[in-house]
Amino acid sequence: MCGIFGYAGNEPCLHIITAGLRKLEYRGYDSAGVMVYDDAVQVAKNTGKVDDLLPHTHDLSARATIGMGHTRWASHGKATAANAHPHWTPAAAIVHNGIIENHAELRATLSDDNIAFQSETDTEVVLHLVVQALQSQPDPLIAFSSVMRQLKGLYGLAMFFACDPHRIYISRKGLPLAIAAGKDAHLFSSDPLALAEHSSDFMFPADATIVVLERQRLALYDYDGEQLPLPVAQHLQVPTQKIDKGSYRHFMLKEIHEQGLVLANNIHRLFDFAQLRPRAEMLALQKIDMQRVKRIKIVGCGTSYHAALLAAVFAEEQLHIESLAEVAHELRYRRALLNDQTLIVALSQSGETADTLSCIEHARSRGCQTLAICNSPHSTLARTCDALIELNCGPEIGVASTKAFTTTVLIWYLFVLAVRSAHARPLTKDAHNLRKLPLLIDYVLNSTAQIESVARQYRQARNFIYIGRGPSFPIALESALKLKEISYIHAEGYAGGELKHGPIALIDHDMPVLVVAPQDDYFLRIVANAGEVKARDGAVILLGNPKNRELRALSDTIIPCPDINQPLLQAIVCAVPLQLFAYYLALEKGTDIDQPRHLAKSVTVE
Ligand code: F6R
Fold this sequence. Notes:
Elements: E1 3-9, H1 14-23, E2 31-37, E3 41-47, H2 50-53, E4 66-72, E5 87-89, E6 92-100, H3 103-109, H4 122-136, H5 140-148, E7 153-161, E8 167-173, E9 178-182, E10 185-189, H6 192-195, E11 201-202, E12 209-214, E13 218-222, E14 227-228, E15 234-235, H7 251-257, H8 259-270, E16 271-272, E17 277-278, E18 295-300, H9 303-319, E19 322-327, H10 328-332, E20 342-348, H11 354-365, E21 369-374, H12 380-384, E22 387-390, H13 403-420, H14 428-445, H15 448-457, E23 463-468, H16 472-487, E24 490-495, E25 512-516, H17 523-534, E26 539-544, H18 549-554, E27 558-560, H19 567-589
Parallel strand pairs: 18-19, 18-20, 20-21, 21-22, 23-24, 23-25, 25-26, 26-27
Antiparallel strand pairs: 1-4, 1-10, 2-3, 2-4, 5-6, 6-7, 7-8, 8-12, 9-10, 11-15, 12-13, 13-14, 16-17
Helix pairs in contact: 3-4, 4-5, 8-13, 8-14, 9-13, 9-16, 13-19, 14-19, 15-19, 16-19
The chain binds fructose -6-phosphate (F6R).
Fructose -6-phosphate binds near residues 301 and 350.
C-alpha cells in the first residue's frame, strides 16, 4: 500500500529517494511520485511502477539534497498521475499515507479564493489548509500543527515548505513512520525496511507528534508546539540483502516451495525433541498470564483470518477455554465482551494491517492481554502487543500469502501445545507428527506436475466452489481466496454441510467443485457432499489420498495430498497443493501473480 520515503542531507538525493521507493514496491501500489527542492519545489509523478516514474524525473535537479517520495495505492480518487503524491504548490509539498476521514468537512472550511484543486484526494485538502494557515502564521511549525489538530482518521504524512527549505515536517497517527540517521543526513519512511541500508537504529515517534527533520538535527513537538524529548532509537535487525526469485518464475512459487524448509526450521526452533516439549520461553508464554484467561479471541484479516478460524477451534478443543475467531475490523466496531480476562491474539504477516492494529488498540483500552503472531518483529503490531511470537519465515514478497499462512498455523499449534503441556506427559505423538510434517510438504511439492496438469484442464472455468469440513473448511475458504486473488476467477469456499442449504443450486456441468477430503474424522461426510455434487453433474476435483478407494470411485481428478493424523497439521498439508493449484491456474490466465491488480501486500488503511 502507500509508502513514504524522505531525505534531508548532504548528498544529491533524487536517486536515494527513488531507491527508497523501490524498497517499498513489494507493498503494492499503482502510482508513484517524487519531490526535490533546489531553489524551487520540483515534482515528478506518474501512474504505474517506479520504473515508469524514472523518465519523468530527468528534469528534476540532480544536485538537490532534500526531498521525498511516495508510492500510492488509490483510495480517494483513481490511480492517475494527478492523484499521485506529492501534492504541491510552489509554497509546499505533501506526501501522505492513510485516510483523512473529515476531509470533506475540512475542504468546506477552506476559504475558496483561488484554490484550484489538482486532484480528487483527501491529501490535497491538508496541503491547502496548511498553505492557507501559513499566510496568517508564517512559522511552518505553528501552521502545520494547527492543521494536524483538526485531522481525523489514521495517517502518516510529511510536508516540505519552500520558506523553510532545510527541513521536513512529519506527523503520524496510527500509521507507521520511522526515522533514521544516515551519513550526514536524516531519513524517514513508512517502513524501516526502506531505511535499512542507511541505518539499523530507528526512532518511532508517538501518535500525534511532529518531527522536524533536517540534515543534522531532529526535534519533536506535540500538536500544541511544546517540545518533547526525542524517542529512544531502537536497534533492529532489518534485512538489507536484495531478495530475488532465484530460479523461480514468481516470488509466490518460490515462497510455496520454501514451506518445507521454513516449517522444519520453525519446528526445530520451537520444539525441544530431547524433552519432547515445545520451548515455552520462545513461545512467549512467560509474557502471558494464562491463569487469568477466560476467553480467547483470535483476530486477523483475509488469509490471517482463515488461520484464526483454524486456531480458534483448536484452542477451544485443547485448552477448554472459549475461543473465537473474528475479522479484526468487525471486532473493533461492535460492542464485544472484552476485559482483562480476555486474551486477544492478532495474526498478521505484515504487522501493519490497519484493521488489525486498530482492533488491538481497542482491545488494549479494554484491559485485554494481547499476543501478536507476526512475521515482522519491527512492525507496529509487534511493538504494540504484550507478547510476540515471530513467524521467522523470511520475507514474503508475493502479495498472496502462502508460507506466512502455514507458518502461522504451525506456530499456533506449538503455542497451544506449550500451554497444555506445562504439566503434561512428554508429547511423543506430537513429536512424531512434527518430524513428519516437512516430509509431507516435500511430497506435495514433488507432485507439482500433476497439480499443474489439473489446473490446465480447468483453464476455461469461470467459477469454482471449494468445500471442506472441520479444519478443511477454513482451507476451502483460504484456497478459494488464493484463486480469486491471483487468477481473478470467481471462487467461494463453503463448509460441506452448507451446500444443500443454498449453494447446491449453482451446481451444473460448468461448476467445478473442489473437495478438500483428507482422511480425517469428517471424511465420510465430505465424501457424501462430493456425491451430491456428482449426482447433479458438477465436476468434482478431489484433494486427498489418491490410493483411497472411496475417492477414486468419485472422480478421476485427484490432487494428491498425504494424510497426517493431526487436524491442524493436516490443514497445513492440504493448503500447499491448493496454493499450487491457484498458482498454475493464474499462470494459465497470464495474470500478474506477484502483484495482482488492486491488491497490496500491506493494507495500511482501515
Ligand atoms: C491474501 C493476503 C491478505 C492478508 C491480509 C492481512 O493472500 O495476503 O488477505 O492476509 O491483508 O494481512 P496481514 O497478515 O499482513 O495482516
